[in-house]
Specification:
445 residues, mainly alpha, 15 helices, 0% strand, globular
Length: 445
């Protein structure tokens, strides 16, 4: 059901809107966690390292899908808040067509270059074949990734966070069962892990797109809506391209960091693969909450209600901190159990490196969560230059420090790069937010 985010108490509105988003991304992450879990438990440490190694390259494709999601979602939110339904529909159709073309181009690129990318990140020979196999199947599923992201972006823009939650809950649970079936019963190895994700995400995507089209058919417009509009394309691109660049550079940075980690040996790679899944679960969850705050910001900006944006920031920080505290405690108190959950009989090096990653990084979730709330507001308001400046600061610091500190203190230096980058980037994001166009909004009649 569509929901207007411009009315009601900001804190109540955000909790009701963002909690299903939080649940959705938890289930979305189950796709990747299930792949790593089944690989580590049912196949072995090398299989876990292969899936984790491949994941860093899949983030490049996810970056493009995420950028299309954000570009469409922010523009549609602003038009929905302004009650311009004809332009809104045209923007949605334009985003879908443009994303389809981009997806085809990326599939061609992926098929041609994934082997080279795996060699570029110093993939160990013992996991190279499985990594390539996983990536090849993943690339054929890119249309599902793209159109599912577009669909969820549209649902969020219309104030509906419950529908994508239902889709993801069902498909993610199915993915775990199919993963286990393909690997333990059919003995398909890493190939089974990849095909399980392909099939379950495909079903979820098709259903989500059908529901979106039905939802749009129920929104009345006075005139016929054009299927493609270059004006709408430009509006979506203004938001989408910086988001794609931001996510792509983050992915490239992660690939560089992965290459540094791979030089530390398969044990460290396996430990990192387990720990980074847990880390990505948190970061992606809070990024999704930031996306929800982007939708809230965009709708209120479209309606011209700037004081509610300031209320949204306060409510957003309170919300993410309440969610952060139990996660931090879990990661600090149960680090060993969480790492061994992914790997049967892990080597001492794999266990130690994974646990130390969680010990170093987890306390700083309180810092990075504030950054992601501020980033959500900047993105929803279309302040993309400031948004990118804070993000690139974090990325550049983490990559440079990982390279430098790894030479001084080994993999522990790589782990320390995360909190340093987060802290400095959070400061920038908050300063940019405080100086946004809503700064003096409450003083105006």
């Amino acid at each position: 059901m569509n929901k207007d985010l411009t009315v009601g108490k900001a804190e109540t509105v955000l909790w009701k809107f963002c909690l299903p988003l939080f649940g959705s991304i938890l289930f979305q992450q189950l796709y990747n966690i299930a792949d790593s879990l089944v690989a580590g438990k049912f196949i072995g440490e090398n299989a876990l390292a292969a899936v984790g190694n491949s994941y860093e390259i899949t983030l490049i494709f996810i970056a493009f899908a995420f950028g299309c999601n954000i570009g469409c979602s922010v523009v549609v939110s602003q038009l929905f808040g302004a009650k311009k339904y004809g332009e809104m529909k045209s923007s949605i159709y334009t985003a879908m067509i443009s994303s389809g073309v981009l997806c085809i181009a990326l599939m061609i690129f992926g098929i041609a270059s994934c082997g080279g990318l795996l060699n570029l990140i110093h993939t160990q020979q013992e996991i190279l074949a499985d990594s390539r196999l996983y990536l090849d199947i993943y690339i054929w599923g890119l249309p599902f990734l793209f159109f599912y992201n577009i669909a969820t972006g549209i649902f969020s823009a219309l104030g509906d966070s419950k529908t994508p939650f239902i889709f993801l809950a069902v498909s993610s649970t199915s993915n775990i069962l199919v993963d286990i079936l393909f690997v333990s019963s059919f003995h398909m190895g890493v190939t089974g892990v990849a095909w399980a994700t392909f099939l379950c995400q495909g079903v979820s995507c098709i259903l989500a797109v059908l529901v979106v089209l039905k939802r749009l058919a129920g929104i009345h417009t006075d005139a016929k809506v054009p299927l493609y509009s270059f004006e709408a394309f430009k509006k979506v691109a203004v938001i989408a391209i910086p988001s794609i660049l931001q996510q792509s550079f983050i992915s490239i940075g992660n690939i560089i960091i992965q290459s540094v980690i791979n030089d530390c040996g398969v044990g460290v790679t396996a430990g990192y693969s387990a720990a980074v899944k847990l880390n990505n679960l948190v970061i992606t969850s809070f990024t999704t909450l930031g996306n929800g705050i982007s939708n809230y910001t965009a709708q209120n900006l479209g309606a011209g209600i700037l004081p509610r944006i300031k209320d949204g920031f306060k409510a957003g920080v309170k919300m993410v901190w309440l969610l952060c505290i139990p996660i931090i405690l879990l990661y600090l108190l149960a680090a060993k159990a969480l790492i061994t959950f992914f790997i049967n009989d892990p080597s001492d090096l794999a266990l130690a490196s994974g646990m130390k990653f969680l010990y170093i990084v987890a306390p700083f979730y309180l810092i990075v969560s504030v950054k992601l709330v501020a980033d959500g507001i900047l993105r929803g308001a279309g302040l993309m230059k400031k948004f990118m400046a804070a993000t690139f600061t974090d990325l550049i610091l983490r990559v440079v420090l990982a390279e430098i500190l790894a030479k001084q203190i080994g993999y522990l230096g790589i782990w320390c790069a995360w909190p340093i980058g987060w802290t400095i980037a959070m400061t920038l994001s908050v300063v940019f937010y405080l100086n946004g166009p809503w700064k003096h909004a409450a003083e105006k009649p």
